[in-house]
Amino acid sequence: MAVETFRTTPPLPTTEDDPADSLYRTAREALNARNYRRAADLFGDIPRRFPKSTYTADSYYWRAFALYRAGSEDDLRDAVASLEEQRSAHADAGTRADADALMIRIRGALGKKGDQESGKKVASAALEGARCSKDDDEDDVRTAALNALMQMDASRAMPILKQVMARRDACSASLRRKGIFLLSQVNTKESDAMIVDAITADPSQEVREQAVFWMGQRRSPENAAFLKNLFRSSKSEELQKNVLFSLSQMGGMGNDKWLLEVANDTSVPMEVRKHALFCASQAGTRSTDFAAMYDRMKEPELKEQLIWLVSESNSTAAADKLIDIAKNDPNREMRKKAIFWLGQKNDPRIQQLLLDIINKR
């Protein structure tokens, strides 16, 4: 799965009095209609016919993008030439950062077609990363290079990605975070081990959280067990919440019951317990189970969360439970919460209940 690190849709035209406006509109329509070679021809006409147009600088990029989508080897080489011409003539174009990432993608496509020189340039760009930048542009290029290398030859890309993920400097944190996504697309023991290493050893909280999220998309008993152990060993409430959500997305393997156990565990922080209830609902816990929990639960914060989760169901049993709470719960605040959510439902019994409450003396 490719990671797009460059623009793929030309912006809407904004300069009606520009002489190239009509031509740009037509080219944009052709590209959006996936008529790539016609779009490339039309974007190519802009600098030839209107060299001083405000659309000219970026037209080289959009011509190259259309040729990249067209996809033949000749198209790809022509796209490279278009981007090189933009770099030479319009270094300040608004699409220059996108152009660098697109160039890597094009060279990757050429590498897959057997162009060894393009393949070398992709590998070199993937290894580049000595300096920090003020924005994500440099990282986007390196991410594009890693992704292109993965598409060309995953066995060749993994050692480079391993080097990237082994770094611990703040400068490369953004690149490592994007590297986690690339690893998530490769279902191997090696990629699993690298994701685990990021969770346990990376100094960046964002990288760790990204790794926890993607582990939740890789369904296995081993990953579920790892995340559960991580939850118990972590002192970070945010990381614990991320673990709970990942387990809810993994589904099965008793994760729903385990999430309910966390919600019932009085040693766990309250906000984490509340999140465990929400995640249990995402994992498939039924509203009847939440309704049964309500009477056993003592903490008002969790009772309120359970009322909301029960209200999410359109079943008669869920409405029955809310009616019971509204009529009989000794806690006035809980009764008010139940009445509020009952008011969102279309049940004739509820209308009568509300009238009875209003008329009660």
Provide a descriptive summary of the structure in words.
- The chain is mainly alpha-helical.
- The chain has a domain at 1-152: Serine Threonine Protein Phosphatase 5, Tetratricopeptide repeat, CATH 1.25.40.10.
- It is built from 20 helices and no strands.
- The chain has helices at residues 21-32, 36-49, 56-70, 73-89, 96-112, 116-127, 137-152, 154-166, 173-184, 189-201, 205-215, 221-233, 237-250, 255-264, 270-282, 287-296, 300-311, 316-328, 332-342, 348-359.
- α7 (137-152) runs antiparallel to α8 and α9 runs parallel beside α11 (205-215).
- The chain is flat.
- It starts with 20 loop residues before the first helix and ends with a helix.
Set down the secondary structure blueprint.
Elements: H1 21-32, H2 36-49, H3 56-70, H4 73-89, H5 96-112, H6 116-127, H7 137-152, H8 154-166, H9 173-184, H10 189-201, H11 205-215, H12 221-233, H13 237-250, H14 255-264, H15 270-282, H16 287-296, H17 300-311, H18 316-328, H19 332-342, H20 348-359
Search tags:
20 helices, 361 residues, mainly alpha, Serine Threonine Protein Phosphatase 5, Tetratricopeptide repeat, single chain
Helix and strand pattern: HHHHHHHHHHHHHHHHHHHH
Rounded mean pLDDT score: 87
- Report the oligomer: single chain
Pick out the low-confidence regions: none
Q: The CATH topology of the domain at 1-152, please? A: Serine Threonine Protein Phosphatase 5, Tetratricopeptide repeat
Looking at the structure, what is the overall shape?
A: flat
Please state the CA-atom Rg, rounded to the nearest Å.
28 Å
Tell me roughly what share of residues is in helical segments: over 70%
CATH architecture descriptor text of the domain at 1-152 = Alpha Horseshoe
Tell me the total number of β-strands. 0
**Helix segment count?**
20
Distance from first to last alpha carbon: 65 Å
Hey, roughly how much beta strand do the residues contain?
A: under 5%
- Structural category is mainly alpha
